[in-house]
Write a structure and sequence with these properties.
alpha/beta, about 50% helix
Length: about 300
């Protein structure tokens, strides 16, 4: 089997567009679809064929990669693609869909004879554009050769979590990882907000923790986006982070685990979105600390 494939990418937001570009750069034939076609059109400059419907995108494809907003959106796109899907095609499902939705997506795959891979990714805009994502993947060993060229093109590392994509082991690990990312981002925003409220120079805080056990590169990276007013283009958007936070809370509830920090973070992110920051980087949850948004950051 050749390692140059026909790959269809459904969803060309921050992550999907970067993945489509890297697939094309790796020499694969890439067809992409996005609900808002204008957002996908720039991909033509990278050799990607932009299609008008999911069915056009998947016709004759060796692999289908979904990277849309959530589980219902992934299912809707695949239902629209269904008339052109051929049995045996590998479906790399990279949307952060949540535990319940993975079961529905896997059921669709079974009904249409698709080989289902639960394959969310860790990383934001920069590693996505550089093809340096970490792919968390679950799927049958005997079919992994069919998707390895796809995973290798979009990621620097693939972590296999299980044999059965329908079990959602990759999605479960992704939710655990995202719970830390969201909590750390919320904490970074609150540190900056409290510093402002108390009249403390935030740089004094960073100097205080420098090179010690409390220091963290991620804290500094997210804080700098706020302090330097670099919230756009988003590395990971507020609205998407809010959705993921809700999925984490729901996953905890289904397992009998109360996640107070994740629930509070979801509320902060939703409040920031309502203030007009939905498309900015998730670090913009900082603004949720203020009833009236401050005119200056830090």
């Amino acid at each position: 089997m050749t390692d140059k494939l026909i790959v269809s990418v459904l969803g060309t937001g921050i992550m999907g567009a970067a993945m489509a570009r890297n697939l094309a750069r790796a020499g694969h034939t890439v067809r992409a679809w996005n609900r808002t076609r204008a957002k996908a059109e720039p991909l033509t400059a990278d050799g990607v064929t932009v299609t008008g419907t999911p069915a056009e995108a998947v016709r004759g494809a060796d692999a289908v990669l979904t990277m849309v907003y959530d589980g219902p959106a992934a299912l809707e796109a695949m239902r629209e693609a269904a008339p052109a899907l051929r049995p045996g095609v590998a479906w790399v499902q990279s949307t952060t869909a949540g535990i319940d939705a993975i079961g529905e997506l896997a059921a669709f795959a079974r009904e249409h004879g698709l080989v289902f891979f639960d394959a969310p990714v860790l990383g934001t805009r920069q590693p996505a554009e550089a093809g340096r994502l970490t792919v968390l993947a679950a799927g049958p060993t005997e079919h992994r050769d069919a998707v390895n060229p796809v995973l290798d093109a979009v990621g620097a590392r693939t972590v296999w979590t299980g044999e059965d994509g329908a079990a959602g082991s990759a999605t479960r690990l992704k939710l655990v990882a995202n719970s830390w990312v969201i909590a750390a981002t919320a904490a970074a925003g609150e540190v900056l907000a409290l510093s402002e409220g108390l009249g403390v120079d935030p740089h004094a805080f960073f100097e205080l923790i420098a090179d010690g056990p409390l220091d963290m590169g991620y804290l500094r990276a997210k804080a700098s986006l706020v302090l330097e007013d670099r919230l756009t283009p988003a590395q990971f958007g507020v609205a998407t982070a809010a959705k993921d936070a809700r999925l984490i809370v729901e996953a905890g509830e289904s397992a009998g685990v109360r996640l107070d920090v994740a629930a509070a973070s979801a509320e902060r992110l939703e409040r920031a979105a309502a203030q007009g920051h939905a498309e900015e980087d998730m670090a913009a949850a900082y603004f949720a600390s203020f009833d009236d948004q401050p005119s200056e950051n830090g």
